[in-house]
Amino acid sequence: MKKTALYQRHIQAGAKMVPFAGFEMPVQYAGVKQEHLTVRSALGVFDVSHMGEFKVKGPNAAALLQHICSNDIEKLQAGKAQYNYLPNSSGGVVDDLIVYKIDADDYMLVVNASNIDKDWAWITQQNASFQAELENCSDQLSLLAIQGPKALEAMQKLTKLALDTLPFYAHQTDTFAGVEDVLIATTGYTGSGGIEIYFPNAQAEKIWDAVLAAGADLGIAPIGLAARDTLRLEMGYCLYGNEINEHTSPIAAGLGWVTKPEVLGVDQALLSQQKKTGTPQRLVAFELIDRGIPRGGYTLVDAAQNPIGVVTSGTQSPSLDKGIGLGYVTAEQATVGTEIGVMIRDKYVAATVVRLPFYKA
Prior knowledge:
This protein folds into three domains: 2-51 and 140-234, Gyrase A, domain 2 (2-Layer Sandwich), CATH 3.30.1360.120; 52-136, Aminomethyltransferase beta-barrel domains (Alpha-Beta Plaits, 2-Layer Sandwich), CATH 3.30.70.1400; 280-361, Aminomethyltransferase beta-barrel domains (Elongation Factor Tu (Ef-tu), domain 3), CATH 2.40.30. 20% of the residues lie in helices and 34% in strands. The protein has helices at 7-12, 32-41, 61-68, 116-126, 151-155, 204-215, 225-235, 268-277; strands at 2-3, 16-20, 23-28, 44-47, 52-57, 81-87, 93-103, 106-111, 133-136, 141-147, 171-176, 179-185, 194-200, 221-222, 281-288, 299-301, 307-316, 323-330, 339-344, 347-354.
């Protein structure tokens, strides 16, 4: 198992470590609910250095990315980031990712840890006819997500960059905690605002310590992967391996908003058709009416208890104190307000299809 550069800091903080995507990662410190609510009310810091980073450069970089990415790369400006996925040429998804445009002909892709090798092979294969410059920096960079409504206020102590002037999904390279050339981005996976920062592994402990010190008076805490999952679920964000995978339609998963078939090189005809006509199944959000906790893999049924789909992600929402989930159902049952049910230990538990996000600040 790999370890991030902050492994010893997690051990010192009393983290429960678990195998995740080939790494030993902190799943929780003080407890999932407490960590979750800390991010919603104040701020927390996540070590997500297991994520992958690829650099794409050169005069053909944009053309390659336009070919393989779902969104319109030509509209991405330097200093901005863009959510994307990689269609797999058979109707599914290789991975979802964020594309950062650093400068003209200079991009960084951030991909899921479990898909680093697969993504690298796919992009390298697609690059054969473009010959862009590719570099896999995944083992060289650390990534911290500092998230929560008080994150910018706390982290402003560590940089001269005016954090509150950065628009959402923007980034700039600056000095942070005395470390030069840190990429500071207003991206995140929690729905509570904040920043994500990228820097060399050698600076990880210095920056981690500085972040915790800077946020101490505002209630900062280290946050594990379990709370990261409940936070993203309250927002309805897709998780690769749950809501999307090699076989799921990105249109069925609700990713039509980042699907631009007119400029896409992979799966263009199929995705264009699905955007026009829809798909037999659709990903929906649901809240339980009765007590219970939905889990991935549970069967979803209609009001007459006929199977209509499956739960992809579910939890007891720490913010709402009720069971929430995402899952695929037949298109006929996907309308907001429709009553459906979750079969929990062979018992029908009533639920309602709702509009995302579950959590609204």
